[in-house]
Amino acid sequence: MLKFIEKIFGSKHDKDVKRMLPIVDEINELYAEYDKLSDDELRGKTAEFRALLAERTREFQDEIAKLRDELKNGELSGEEINDMYEQIQKLEDEEYDTIQDTLDEILPQAFATVKQVAKRLSGHKYLVVGREMTWDMIPYDVQMMGGIVIHEGKISEMATGEGKTLVAVAPMYLNALPQRGVHLVTVNDYLAQRDREWMLPVFNFLGITTGCITSDMDPDERQREYNCDITYGTNNEFGFDYLRDNMVGDAADMVQRPHNFAIVDEVDSVLIDEARTPLIISGPVHQSDHRYEEMNPSLRRLVEAQTRLVAKIVGDAERLLQPTGDNKKDKENRVEAGVALLRAHRGMPKNKKLMKMFSAPENMKLMRDTELEYLRDQGTRMSEIDEELFYAIDERQHQIDLTEKGREFLSSSQTDKDFFVIPDVAAEMSMVEGDHSLEPTEKQLRKDAIMRLYAERSDRIHTVTQLLRAYSLYEKDVEYVVDGGKVKIVDEFTGRILEGRRYSDGLHQAIEAKEGVDVERDTQTLATVTLQNYFRIYRKLAGMTGTAETEAGEFYEIYKLDVVVIPTNRNIVRNDMNDLIYRTKREKFNAVIEEVKRETEQGRAVLVGTTSVEVSELLSKMLAREKVKHNVLNAKQHQREAEIVAEAGQPRAVTIATNMAGRGTDIKLHPSVKDAGGLAIIGTERHEARRIDRQLRGRAGRQGDPGSSKFFLSLEDDLMRLFGGERIAGVMQFLKVPEGEPIEHNQVTKSVERAQKKVEENNFGTRKRLLEYDNVMNQQREVIYSRRRHALMGDRMKGEIMDYAREFADDLYDTCHEEADIEHFREELRTTLLCDIEMTQDEFKGLRREECTERVMEVAEEFYSRKEKTFGADFMAELERVAILQTIDEKWREHLRVMDELKEGIHLRAYGQKDPLLEYKGEAYKIFVELIGEINRESAHFAFRYFPELTPEQIRQMQQPSTSGNVSIAGPNGFVPRVTTTNTNAMRFSRPSAEQYTYASAEAVAEVADAVSAQVANGNGAPKTVVNTAPKIGRNDPCPFDPNKKFKKCCGAGGGTHCVKQQ
Known about the structure:
- The structure is a single chain.
- About 55% of the residues lie in helices and about 10% in strands.
- The chain has 39 helices and 22 strands.
């Protein structure tokens, strides 16, 4: 029906192309006109375009500058500050819309200018990453279309060899004209440098500055590169610089400008495959709760016991399937064999003997039928299968459950039989509360013991689960490699080693324990963002790739990015043949070797695509036995990628490559290879994502070159085992296909593609749900980073400090008024705001909250004014900035740790029939509200309480207005402490070295707090600091004043750290 409708009304693809054709025609007309311009006149187009943009945005910029000056120098209330921020945001939005309208208007002229420059550069020789190149590129019409799509903030899907690097030049030039910054995102440093130098002649001609961010740059170099009109770099570098900028203590140390426009190359790889990859800046924790090395020997014995058990079960199944001649007995044995096969599959799905049995379609069908039987009634009977195992594996959901038998096995070496039993906290707490023989203090101690036991056993079970996942679901040389005593993750989509990346939630440490390498310490997250959420920060986002159409729905739903398929400059003549499906992997690989030999004998170049390092090395050994010369490109050989890809198009060249297969590079064919039929693509397994297979196919058929593609599959392949294999197995059984012979038909190929689509939909559903978890942290991060940036940019924060003080007074009133505890009320005021009010208990009892708060604010504002008069407005502005930055940094890091712990254990709530996502959102909201309250209290506390130790001469200097507008601050005797921030220059991924950085730690804040007791010299009338020498109390500890309450709910409710009983 859809095809019929498209024939009548036209497809989306046809409509997209039709819409752009008039614009392309206008570009070509202007391009012809510009032949008459001199080089200087053509260069002058850039200044002409920029003058037009400046004229149309001048009014907005003047108004924004006026508001920012008032924010920096005016004395405003918190409400007035927020109103100004809203006005600035509204003006910036209007300015952005005006800029975009202007760029749309001048697009044909700008694109024609770029095309004319490309024409004039023909024959120009220059160096690109050390190799001499000759410019010979003039954009085709289809490349202009691709550029239009990118400027519109959409994804341009263009086939391999269509010149995506050149396609991006025109939209980058156009969007660089407002001088707000354009980022071109590549998949590695090499491509960033290559693409920048490759397109540099065009940008140099037009007076556009370009930069490139690489991993070895220091902050000053990065800042210089980001200040260019166009900046090339990888997603990791851009993301980490964003995190670093939100950790600096001085606006001058920030390297990035506001995020304006990003073009993502290989957009499917970055925004789909790596979307949820967290970029983490972290520091070591003092000690780890997880004991992977300690638990590893016990888990290894458990895995060995399960391996022996599964081997026995598979042997029993094989025996039961042997015919006895008695039909009734055979039928009973078949039922038992089905149970045995299902149990073995849930115990060890990748057992080699079991997989060989499943290559027989009737055995696979028997196991699936048995599984359906036990999954009835919401799977209540599946426990009958699992109870015989030590642990059960759900390969589809990537989950492992330890059974009662497994717990007993692990507990056998422990003296505590409940070693792995998590206590029922609610029931235990209720029992303690109901025991009237206990004193309140003893009750609290028992409750604390219950919580410690719960935490200890939860961590233990988490450790066991992650070790089991490491042993059962993660294979060496498939998901990861061990190189130089380090476990390194292999990107499942590109085959490249992800240097520095680590699995989360302790899984990486579990794999390190499994492999016997050093288990690195736990780390604490200091700053984090997923790539998905980082790229959603940009005002405008676009992308380009050859394989996005199959994920168009996900791109639009998550990023609001439309996918536009651009026609090829020349028709594709590649022959995509039907899949060949064999029973076993052995048969499949033998057929692949024969196909390679057959194609090379014809003089063709051959590219063999694999999905893992293990398969590529196996095929390499098989080809070596056949004396077939070849190259291998996988995660172990990734350094030779450019060299191997360059040789791949030569006659009789055989290249075995994992899915990276030269992402970002083209295989150029020797003329004799074209004559022999072009590049032959041989796929050894279908990937679960169709676009990855399309990426492999796309290596052939570049720019009208001949070529072919064919996939060799087996019923033992992961995709066939998990999805769609039973139907094909049934067909092979019905047709009685002989051993070693494949089944081939276009309907079978379509059946495989339907299985892939099913997996894609399942993966999208999973990613979409996980995105909701990520969005919680993203929303919190936006609030915190926005607050931090306002302080960092030098805005006067006095109004906000006063609002925080008012909030503190309100909270303190609520805490103390019910019991009319005027002494505690006044003590907290003296300790936190360094001021006091004369008030009797009866008077306090009769005041409403608003009246009491106004009394407090009168004395607080009077004290703050005296302090400002003493030290000067410049000093106080800097103090307010430091107070807010220092407090945000300390509290945010602690908040990230709490959120990590919450997310790690939230899935356990599913056992209580609760939705973990809803529980996570609810808990996260409560924690965040507490965080904001603590930040507000501590910021006000810091600003009111800090006094420098100064001489009278220094005080007189500070009272004079600063001619530069800035306060000079340096050294231990400086007027105000600097914000202690992380030196982020060398941070990479999730595991920086502890020695490289200093952190804005609790110790740094304590050092500042100690300085509060200092008095201003020589009796200058400044108020004295109240010093409390009593020991500080943890906020969750019992309060000495009332042991039935936690300190934070009693004497610490107002933000204090001491109990009134200790005064």
